[in-house]
Amino acid sequence: MNTAVSPRAARHTRAEWTALAEAHESRADALTADHRGRAARGEKHPVEDFLFTYYSYKPAQLRRWHPGAGVALADAPERRGWRWYSPGPTPDSVAPDAAAFQSEKAQLAGLIERMLRRTAARPGQFGCFGLHEWAMVYRTDAHRHPIPLRLGADGTDAVVEANELRCTHFDAFRFFTYPAAPRNRLQPTRESQPDLEQPGCLHAGMDLYKWAMKLGPLIPGEMLLDAFELAREIRQLDMAAAPYDLSDWDVSPVRVETTAGKADYVRRQREFADRGSALRERMLTAWLGDAQMPEGDR
User: Fold this and answer.
1) Cα dihedral 118→124→130→136 (10° resolution)
2) pTM score over 0.90
3) What is the pLDDT of residues 231-256, one digit of tens each?
4) Is residue 164 within 8 Å of residue 185, measured between CB atoms?
5) Which of 241, 236, 271, 248 is nearest to 51 (CA)?
6) What whole-number distance in Å separates Cα of residue 87 and Cα of residue 97?
7) Between residues 143 and 284, which one has the greater pLDDT?
8) Domain limits of the chain?
9) Fewer Cβ close by (within 10 Å): the C or N end of the chain?
10) What is the pLDDT of residue 293?
11) 295 pLDDT more than 50
12) Helix orientation angle between 221-240 and 259-288, rounded to the nearest 10 degrees
Protein backbone atom coordinates (compact mmCIF):
# COMPACT_ATOMS: atom_id res chain seq x y z
CA MET A 1 0.00 0.00 0.00
CA ASN A 2 1.45 3.34 -1.02
CA THR A 3 1.36 5.98 1.70
CA ALA A 4 1.89 9.04 -0.47
CA VAL A 5 -0.51 11.93 0.02
CA SER A 6 -2.18 13.15 -3.16
CA PRO A 7 0.28 15.42 -4.99
CA ARG A 8 -2.34 18.05 -5.74
CA ALA A 9 -1.50 21.46 -4.34
CA ALA A 10 -5.06 22.83 -4.41
CA ARG A 11 -6.10 25.20 -1.68
CA HIS A 12 -9.58 26.61 -1.17
CA THR A 13 -10.24 29.91 0.53
CA ARG A 14 -12.91 29.84 3.21
CA ALA A 15 -15.41 31.46 0.87
CA GLU A 16 -14.67 28.83 -1.78
CA TRP A 17 -14.88 25.76 0.40
CA THR A 18 -17.94 26.82 2.35
CA ALA A 19 -19.75 27.47 -0.95
CA LEU A 20 -18.73 24.02 -2.16
CA ALA A 21 -19.93 22.47 1.10
CA GLU A 22 -23.31 24.23 0.88
CA ALA A 23 -23.81 23.11 -2.73
CA HIS A 24 -22.90 19.57 -1.73
CA GLU A 25 -25.43 19.59 1.11
CA SER A 26 -28.17 20.78 -1.25
CA ARG A 27 -27.39 18.05 -3.77
CA ALA A 28 -27.27 15.39 -1.06
CA ASP A 29 -30.60 16.55 0.36
CA ALA A 30 -32.20 16.30 -3.07
CA LEU A 31 -30.82 12.78 -3.56
CA THR A 32 -32.15 11.54 -0.22
CA ALA A 33 -35.42 13.51 -0.05
CA ASP A 34 -37.66 10.61 -1.11
CA HIS A 35 -36.02 8.20 1.32
CA ARG A 36 -36.21 10.64 4.21
CA GLY A 37 -39.86 11.32 3.44
CA ARG A 38 -40.69 7.61 3.42
CA ALA A 39 -38.73 7.07 6.64
CA ALA A 40 -40.72 9.83 8.34
CA ARG A 41 -43.94 8.11 7.26
CA GLY A 42 -42.71 4.65 8.24
CA GLU A 43 -42.86 3.40 4.64
CA LYS A 44 -40.56 0.78 3.13
CA HIS A 45 -39.19 0.63 -0.42
CA PRO A 46 -37.71 -2.70 -1.55
CA VAL A 47 -35.46 -1.07 -4.15
CA GLU A 48 -34.20 2.21 -2.77
CA ASP A 49 -33.97 1.32 0.94
CA PHE A 50 -31.07 -0.99 0.05
CA LEU A 51 -28.64 1.92 -0.14
CA PHE A 52 -29.44 2.87 3.45
CA THR A 53 -29.90 -0.57 5.01
CA TYR A 54 -27.41 -2.91 3.34
CA TYR A 55 -24.72 -0.20 3.25
CA SER A 56 -26.04 1.28 6.53
CA TYR A 57 -24.87 4.83 5.82
CA LYS A 58 -27.23 7.60 6.90
CA PRO A 59 -28.35 10.57 4.77
CA ALA A 60 -26.50 12.82 7.22
CA GLN A 61 -23.22 11.13 6.26
CA LEU A 62 -23.84 11.91 2.60
CA ARG A 63 -24.30 15.59 3.47
CA ARG A 64 -20.81 15.99 4.90
CA TRP A 65 -18.53 17.51 2.27
CA HIS A 66 -14.80 16.87 2.08
CA PRO A 67 -12.29 18.26 -0.43
CA GLY A 68 -10.31 15.07 -1.03
CA ALA A 69 -6.79 14.01 -0.08
CA GLY A 70 -4.21 16.77 0.02
CA VAL A 71 -6.61 19.63 -0.74
CA ALA A 72 -6.16 22.35 1.88
CA LEU A 73 -8.98 24.37 3.41
CA ALA A 74 -8.00 27.84 4.54
CA ASP A 75 -9.40 29.32 7.73
CA ALA A 76 -11.05 26.08 8.83
CA PRO A 77 -10.67 25.99 12.64
CA GLU A 78 -13.85 23.92 13.00
CA ARG A 79 -12.18 21.08 11.10
CA ARG A 80 -9.05 20.93 13.22
CA GLY A 81 -9.16 17.66 15.05
CA TRP A 82 -11.39 16.02 12.44
CA ARG A 83 -10.43 12.42 11.77
CA TRP A 84 -7.76 12.05 9.08
CA TYR A 85 -7.26 15.81 8.74
CA SER A 86 -3.78 17.26 9.28
CA PRO A 87 -2.36 20.81 9.31
CA GLY A 88 -2.14 22.27 5.82
CA PRO A 89 0.63 24.24 4.13
CA THR A 90 -0.33 27.48 5.91
CA PRO A 91 -0.90 28.03 9.65
CA ASP A 92 -4.65 28.50 9.28
CA SER A 93 -5.34 25.56 6.97
CA VAL A 94 -6.09 21.84 7.26
CA ALA A 95 -6.17 19.08 4.66
CA PRO A 96 -7.33 15.45 4.50
CA ASP A 97 -4.26 13.28 4.91
CA ALA A 98 -3.94 9.94 3.08
CA ALA A 99 -0.90 9.02 5.17
CA ALA A 100 -2.88 9.49 8.40
CA PHE A 101 -5.60 7.20 7.06
CA GLN A 102 -2.99 4.61 6.06
CA SER A 103 -1.37 4.79 9.50
CA GLU A 104 -4.64 4.20 11.34
CA LYS A 105 -6.38 1.90 8.85
CA ALA A 106 -3.57 0.08 7.07
CA GLN A 107 -5.49 -3.16 6.54
CA LEU A 108 -8.59 -1.38 5.24
CA ALA A 109 -6.54 0.92 3.03
CA GLY A 110 -4.73 -2.04 1.51
CA LEU A 111 -7.98 -3.88 0.87
CA ILE A 112 -9.65 -0.90 -0.80
CA GLU A 113 -6.66 -0.24 -3.03
CA ARG A 114 -6.44 -3.88 -4.06
CA MET A 115 -10.15 -4.01 -4.80
CA LEU A 116 -10.11 -0.84 -6.86
CA ARG A 117 -6.92 -1.54 -8.78
CA ARG A 118 -7.53 -5.20 -9.46
CA THR A 119 -11.10 -4.61 -10.56
CA ALA A 120 -9.96 -1.79 -12.83
CA ALA A 121 -7.31 -4.04 -14.42
CA ARG A 122 -9.75 -6.80 -15.43
CA PRO A 123 -12.11 -7.05 -18.40
CA GLY A 124 -15.79 -6.99 -17.59
CA GLN A 125 -17.84 -10.18 -17.67
CA PHE A 126 -21.37 -9.86 -19.02
CA GLY A 127 -22.88 -13.34 -18.92
CA CYS A 128 -24.53 -13.41 -15.49
CA PHE A 129 -27.82 -11.77 -16.64
CA GLY A 130 -28.65 -10.72 -13.10
CA LEU A 131 -29.58 -14.25 -12.09
CA HIS A 132 -28.05 -13.84 -8.63
CA GLU A 133 -31.40 -12.54 -7.36
CA TRP A 134 -33.13 -15.59 -8.82
CA ALA A 135 -30.63 -17.85 -7.08
CA MET A 136 -31.50 -16.20 -3.77
CA VAL A 137 -35.07 -17.54 -3.97
CA TYR A 138 -34.38 -20.85 -5.70
CA ARG A 139 -36.33 -23.76 -4.19
CA THR A 140 -37.32 -21.88 -1.05
CA ASP A 141 -40.45 -20.28 0.33
CA ALA A 142 -38.44 -17.86 2.50
CA HIS A 143 -37.77 -14.80 0.36
CA ARG A 144 -35.54 -11.88 1.31
CA HIS A 145 -38.32 -9.56 0.13
CA PRO A 146 -42.00 -10.27 0.98
CA ILE A 147 -43.01 -9.65 -2.64
CA PRO A 148 -44.68 -12.07 -5.08
CA LEU A 149 -42.55 -13.67 -7.78
CA ARG A 150 -43.44 -12.69 -11.35
CA LEU A 151 -43.30 -16.28 -12.60
CA GLY A 152 -44.25 -18.01 -9.37
CA ALA A 153 -41.98 -20.40 -7.51
CA ASP A 154 -41.96 -23.14 -10.13
CA GLY A 155 -41.38 -20.72 -12.99
CA THR A 156 -38.56 -19.01 -11.11
CA ASP A 157 -36.87 -22.32 -10.33
CA ALA A 158 -37.16 -23.32 -13.99
CA VAL A 159 -35.29 -20.16 -15.08
CA VAL A 160 -32.43 -20.94 -12.69
CA GLU A 161 -32.26 -24.52 -13.94
CA ALA A 162 -32.26 -23.44 -17.60
CA ASN A 163 -29.30 -21.10 -17.19
CA GLU A 164 -25.75 -21.29 -15.90
CA LEU A 165 -25.15 -19.20 -12.78
CA ARG A 166 -21.99 -17.09 -13.18
CA CYS A 167 -21.90 -14.82 -10.15
CA THR A 168 -18.43 -13.50 -9.28
CA HIS A 169 -19.39 -11.31 -6.31
CA PHE A 170 -19.18 -12.85 -2.85
CA ASP A 171 -21.67 -10.47 -1.23
CA ALA A 172 -24.31 -11.63 -3.71
CA PHE A 173 -23.27 -15.28 -3.73
CA ARG A 174 -23.46 -15.58 0.06
CA PHE A 175 -27.24 -15.08 -0.15
CA PHE A 176 -27.76 -17.93 -2.63
CA THR A 177 -30.03 -20.64 -1.29
CA TYR A 178 -28.42 -23.92 -0.29
CA PRO A 179 -29.51 -25.74 -3.49
CA ALA A 180 -28.52 -22.79 -5.70
CA ALA A 181 -24.93 -22.35 -4.49
CA PRO A 182 -23.51 -25.53 -6.10
CA ARG A 183 -25.02 -24.50 -9.43
CA ASN A 184 -22.78 -21.42 -9.60
CA ARG A 185 -19.73 -21.68 -11.88
CA LEU A 186 -17.54 -20.24 -9.11
CA GLN A 187 -17.62 -20.56 -5.34
CA PRO A 188 -16.61 -17.04 -4.21
CA THR A 189 -15.33 -16.46 -0.69
CA ARG A 190 -14.47 -13.32 1.24
CA GLU A 191 -10.79 -14.19 0.84
CA SER A 192 -11.05 -14.62 -2.93
CA GLN A 193 -13.06 -11.43 -3.47
CA PRO A 194 -10.08 -9.28 -4.60
CA ASP A 195 -9.21 -12.00 -7.12
CA LEU A 196 -12.71 -12.38 -8.56
CA GLU A 197 -14.19 -8.87 -8.56
CA GLN A 198 -14.65 -7.56 -12.10
CA PRO A 199 -16.09 -4.33 -13.55
CA GLY A 200 -19.08 -5.90 -15.29
CA CYS A 201 -20.61 -6.89 -11.96
CA LEU A 202 -23.45 -4.59 -10.88
CA HIS A 203 -22.53 -5.06 -7.25
CA ALA A 204 -18.92 -4.05 -7.89
CA GLY A 205 -20.29 -0.81 -9.31
CA MET A 206 -22.58 -0.26 -6.34
CA ASP A 207 -19.73 -0.96 -3.95
CA LEU A 208 -17.87 2.11 -5.22
CA TYR A 209 -20.24 4.00 -2.94
CA LYS A 210 -19.14 1.84 -0.01
CA TRP A 211 -15.44 2.36 -0.74
CA ALA A 212 -15.93 6.11 -1.13
CA MET A 213 -17.68 6.25 2.24
CA LYS A 214 -14.97 4.22 3.94
CA LEU A 215 -12.26 6.54 2.57
CA GLY A 216 -14.08 9.47 4.16
CA PRO A 217 -12.39 12.87 3.66
CA LEU A 218 -9.92 11.46 1.12
CA ILE A 219 -12.65 11.38 -1.53
CA PRO A 220 -14.06 14.70 -2.79
CA GLY A 221 -17.69 15.28 -1.91
CA GLU A 222 -18.87 15.49 -5.50
CA MET A 223 -17.26 12.10 -6.19
CA LEU A 224 -19.04 10.54 -3.21
CA LEU A 225 -22.39 11.77 -4.52
CA ASP A 226 -21.52 10.56 -8.02
CA ALA A 227 -20.89 7.12 -6.49
CA PHE A 228 -24.21 7.26 -4.63
CA GLU A 229 -26.09 8.23 -7.80
CA LEU A 230 -24.43 5.41 -9.73
CA ALA A 231 -25.30 2.91 -7.00
CA ARG A 232 -28.92 4.07 -6.97
CA GLU A 233 -29.28 3.65 -10.73
CA ILE A 234 -27.57 0.27 -10.68
CA ARG A 235 -29.90 -0.86 -7.91
CA GLN A 236 -32.86 -0.06 -10.15
CA LEU A 237 -31.54 -2.42 -12.84
CA ASP A 238 -30.56 -5.02 -10.25
CA MET A 239 -34.13 -5.27 -9.01
CA ALA A 240 -35.79 -4.76 -12.39
CA ALA A 241 -33.98 -7.92 -13.51
CA ALA A 242 -34.93 -9.77 -10.31
CA PRO A 243 -37.76 -12.33 -10.21
CA TYR A 244 -40.04 -10.11 -8.10
CA ASP A 245 -43.21 -8.37 -9.22
CA LEU A 246 -42.38 -4.77 -8.40
CA SER A 247 -45.26 -3.16 -10.29
CA ASP A 248 -46.54 -1.61 -7.05
CA TRP A 249 -43.34 0.47 -7.04
CA ASP A 250 -43.54 1.33 -10.77
CA VAL A 251 -40.53 -0.86 -11.62
CA SER A 252 -40.81 -2.31 -15.12
CA PRO A 253 -39.21 -5.76 -15.30
CA VAL A 254 -36.18 -6.59 -17.40
CA ARG A 255 -37.25 -10.08 -18.41
CA VAL A 256 -33.91 -11.87 -18.28
CA GLU A 257 -35.72 -15.16 -18.74
CA THR A 258 -36.05 -14.15 -22.43
CA THR A 259 -33.44 -13.56 -25.13
CA ALA A 260 -34.56 -9.96 -25.60
CA GLY A 261 -34.45 -9.34 -21.85
CA LYS A 262 -30.93 -10.72 -21.60
CA ALA A 263 -29.78 -8.41 -24.41
CA ASP A 264 -31.36 -5.40 -22.72
CA TYR A 265 -29.74 -6.31 -19.42
CA VAL A 266 -26.27 -6.68 -20.96
CA ARG A 267 -26.58 -3.37 -22.81
CA ARG A 268 -27.40 -1.53 -19.61
CA GLN A 269 -24.85 -3.54 -17.65
CA ARG A 270 -22.11 -2.43 -20.06
CA GLU A 271 -23.12 1.21 -19.66
CA PHE A 272 -22.87 0.94 -15.90
CA ALA A 273 -19.53 -0.86 -16.19
CA ASP A 274 -18.13 2.02 -18.26
CA ARG A 275 -19.36 4.59 -15.75
CA GLY A 276 -18.04 2.53 -12.85
CA SER A 277 -14.62 2.16 -14.47
CA ALA A 278 -14.32 5.91 -14.97
CA LEU A 279 -15.37 6.58 -11.38
CA ARG A 280 -12.98 3.93 -10.06
CA GLU A 281 -10.05 5.68 -11.77
CA ARG A 282 -11.18 9.07 -10.47
CA MET A 283 -11.30 7.74 -6.92
CA LEU A 284 -7.82 6.27 -7.14
CA THR A 285 -6.45 9.52 -8.53
CA ALA A 286 -8.18 11.64 -5.89
CA TRP A 287 -6.91 9.40 -3.11
CA LEU A 288 -3.42 8.43 -4.29
CA GLY A 289 -2.67 10.55 -7.32
CA ASP A 290 -0.44 8.63 -9.74
CA ALA A 291 1.02 6.45 -6.98
CA GLN A 292 1.24 2.75 -7.74
CA MET A 293 1.07 -0.22 -5.45
CA PRO A 294 4.22 -2.23 -4.88
CA GLU A 295 4.19 -5.22 -7.22
CA GLY A 296 3.81 -7.71 -4.38
CA ASP A 297 0.58 -6.07 -3.17
CA ARG A 298 -1.24 -6.10 -6.49
Assistant:
1) -30
2) yes
3) 999 999 999 999 999 999 999 999 99
4) yes
5) 236
6) 9
7) 284
8) 11-288
9) C
10) 43
11) no
12) 160
